[in-house]
Design goal:
This protein has 2 domains: 48-200, serine acetyltransferase, domain 1; 220-314, UDP N-Acetylglucosamine Acyltransferase, domain 1. The chain is 50% helix and 10% strand. The chain is built from 12 helices and 14 strands. The chain has helices at 2-16, 19-23, 25-39, 54-68, 70-74, 83-109, 119-131, 133-150, 157-163, 165-181, 185-199, 306-311; strands at 202-203, 208-209, 214-215, 222-223, 228-229, 234-235, 240-242, 263-264, 269-270, 275-277, 281-282, 287-288, 293-294, 303-304. The strands form 3 sheets. Strands 1-4-7-10-13 form a 5-stranded parallel sheet. α4 (54-68) runs antiparallel to α6. The longest helix is centred in the first third of the chain and has 27 residues, at 83-109. It is globular. Mean pLDDT is 90; it is low at 5-10. GO terms for molecular function: serine O-acetyltransferase activity. Keywords: Acyltransferase, Amino-acid biosynthesis, Transferase. It comes from Bradyrhizobium daqingense.
Length: 314
């Protein structure tokens, strides 16, 4: 009964007050036009362009993952006679879609110097991306093995491959990093954000990550654009590899792309909640304890705990 009364009251309002008047749409639309075109304009002049599609990129990522691991993410009943046809089909669809999104992203940015601005350039870029997929699969297998070795709870490879958020994040990152290197940076960033949404792990596509990388649990991990991570590195949830400060030029503008994130050498373990900031180096074989704050170089084979971090001079 209460619901009916509320609905009747709302219907009365609709009859008494037209939509335009109720929301003052004419004034609101005019104010937004002024903001959009004059006071707060951010769009380049020229023909309007379609933005790349996040939904299309999600489908492309799924297709590429199925092509890389057809029996795990694709169809369980594939055999020696039909598996190559399945992989070829998934690759064809995914790469066609990726080429379109690379081209669309470059047009949307509106700079002719952007990679993929011309259709032929987008095709060439996508071809170069595709040529690296076999090597990327090898890197992902090294990540898979590292997870199996590094996690006593892991019982088998399929469990890790389809069930661990860290594996999903690193698969996405390996693909996004290639695109970032090929200067398809908007697409790479969107792929990174898809991974972030799916896993809670935020890895900038510019970050360089060696083989055998394992993120255990993973929620809240942040890895910045210019971070360099060596081979056989293991990190846990809520770890940040971030910037300590942001250098500016003589006019006070931020310097884009400046090396400002940590270098983590081979065979390092970083436990949950550690925050490592600035262009510092964590030496090979070191262990960084949980919840520590590190802003200075760490020598090789060191163990950094909250106690040692507090007592260290400077």
């Amino acid at each position: 009964m209460k619901h009916d009364l509320a609905r009747e009251s709302w219907d009365d309002k609709e009859l008494d007050s037209p939509t335009q008047k109720r929301w003052q749409l004419e004034q609101l639309v005019a104010a937004l036009r002024i903001s959009r075109e004059e006071t707060h304009s951010i769009r380049r002049d020229g023909e309007a362009r379609r933005a790349p599609s996040r939904e299309a990129l999600q489908a492309i990522l799924d297709g590429l993952t199925e092509a890389l691991f057809p029996r795990h993410y694709g169809q369980f009943d594939l055999d020696g006679e039909n598996i190559d046809y399945f992989v070829g089909n998934r690759l064809s669809i995914a790469l066609d879609g990726l080429c379109e999104q690379v081209h669309r992203a470059a047009l949307f940015i509106g700079d002719e110097l952007t990679a993929g601005f011309r259709r032929d350039d987008a095709i060439d870029l996508t071809r170069r991306f595709a040529s690296q997929l076999p090597d990327v699969r090898g890197l992902i297998i090294s990540d898979l093995r590292a997870a199996f070795v590094g996690d006593p709870a892991a019982r088998n490879f399929p469990e890790i491959l389809i069930g661990y958020p860290g594996m999903t994040a690193i698969i996405h990152h390996r693909l996004a990093h290639i695109l970032h290197q090929l200067d398809a940076r908007l697409i790479a960033r969107l792929i990174a954000e898809i991974a972030h949404t799916r896993t809670g792990i935020d890895i900038h596509p510019g970050a360089s990550i060696g083989s055998g990388f394992f993120i255990d649990h993973g929620t809240g991990v942040v890895i910045g654009e210019t971070a360099i991570i060596g081979d056989n590195v293991r990190i846990y949830q809520a770890v940040t590899l971030g910037a300590r400060h942001f250098p500016t030029d003589d006019d006070g503008h931020l310097i884009k792309g400046d090396a400002r994130h940590p270098i983590v050498d081979d065979d390092v373990v970083i436990y949950a909640g550690a925050t490592i900031l600035g262009r510092i180096t964590i030496g090979r074989g070191s262990t960084i304890g949980g919840n520590v704050w590190v802003t200075q170089d760490v020598p090789p084979n060191s163990i950094v705990t909250q106690a040692t971090a507090r007592n260290k001079p400077g």
